[in-house]
């Protein structure tokens, strides 16, 4: 498994070793010891799965302390443009984003620690997206940032996004008050 640091401190791209032959493939999607060696030490307590067709945008979401979530995300089938935005006050990369294609084909994963808003756009019909979370869902602690805020300059790779009502009305980044503080 190769773990790659991104330009945003703490956000890690993970490329598993995939073993394939005429029968199919095998890969290790999680190994506590390998992840712990990279500082990913939280216990995963909830798994989520979503199904979306092409053009759906979900995000930018987070959960505030004390129910902040770290997320290990990947695509089982299909393809997404995955986006994480640094929302840690005092971070040298505050307000910057990192985006990467995750797909059932490339098997890449992204570790999104607490302190990031997360979202994705589906690039293929029938996309199945998996999340491993370090805390359980808490509606009282959920927050968002407007997915298409021009100050974030995110290219979502979709023409006419399909959005939930909640995602259409998130706060703009400049009006947003982050509950997270950057820690070196």
Give an account of the 3D structure.
With 184 residues, the chain is mainly beta. It is 5% helix and 42% strand. It is built from 2 helices and 15 strands. The protein has helices spanning 32-37, 165-168; strands spanning 2-5, 12-15, 18-21, 24-27, 46-52, 57-63, 71-77, 79-86, 88-89, 97-103, 109-112, 116-122, 127-133, 142-144, 180-181. The strands form 4 sheets. Strands 1-2-11-7-13-5 form a 6-stranded antiparallel beta sheet, with no helix packed on it. The longest helix is centred in the N-terminal third of the chain and has 6 residues, at 32-37. The chain starts with a strand and ends with a strand.
Q: Could you outline the blueprint of secondary structure elements for this entry?
A:
Blueprint: E1 2-5, E2 12-15, E3 18-21, E4 24-27, H1 32-37, E5 46-52, E6 57-63, E7 71-77, E8 79-86, E9 88-89, E10 97-103, E11 109-112, E12 116-122, E13 127-133, E14 142-144, H2 165-168, E15 180-181
Parallel strand pairs: 9-15
Antiparallel strand pairs: 1-2, 2-11, 3-4, 5-13, 6-12, 6-14, 7-11, 7-13, 8-10, 8-12
CATH topology: Jelly Rolls
Helix content: under 10%
When the domains are counted, the total is 1
Overall, the morphology is: globular
Q: Order of SSEs, N→C?
A: EEEEHEEEEEEEEEEHE
Report the uncertain regions.
Answer: none
> Strand sequence of the main sheet, in spatial order?
1-2-11-7-13-5
User: Structural class, from helix and strand content?
Assistant: mainly beta
* Largest sheet features: 6 strands, antiparallel
Total DSSP E strands: 15
* The CATH superfamily title: Jelly Rolls
Mean pLDDT: 96
Q: Which strand-content bin applies to the residues?
A: 35-45%
Tally of helical segments: 2
| CATH architecture assignment | Sandwich
CATH class: Mainly Beta
Assembly state (oligomeric): single chain
Radius of gyration: 16 Å
Beginning-to-end CA distance, first to last residue:
25 Å
């Amino acid at each position: 498994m190769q773990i790659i640091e991104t330009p945003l401190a703490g956000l890690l791209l993970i490329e598993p070793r995939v073993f394939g032959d005429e029968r199919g493939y095998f890969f290790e999607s999680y190994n506590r010891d390998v992840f712990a060696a990279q500082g990913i030490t939280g216990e995963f307590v909830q798994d989520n799965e979503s199904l979306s067709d092409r053009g759906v945008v979900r995000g930018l979401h987070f959960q505030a302390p004390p129910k902040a979530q770290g997320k290990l995300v990947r695509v089982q089938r299909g393809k997404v443009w995955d986006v994480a935005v640094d929302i840690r006050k005092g971070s040298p990369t505050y307000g910057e984003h990192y985006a990467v294609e995750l797909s059932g084909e490339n098997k890449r994963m992204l570790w999104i620690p607490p302190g990031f808003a997360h979202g994705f756009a589906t690039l293929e019909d029938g996309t199945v997206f998996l999340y491993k979370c370090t805390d359980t869902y808490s509606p009282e602690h959920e927050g968002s940032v407007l997915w298409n805020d021009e100050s974030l300059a995110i290219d979502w790779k979709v023409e006419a996004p399909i959005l939930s009502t909640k995602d259409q009305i998130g706060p703009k980044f400049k009006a947003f008050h982050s509950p997270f503080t950057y820690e070196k």
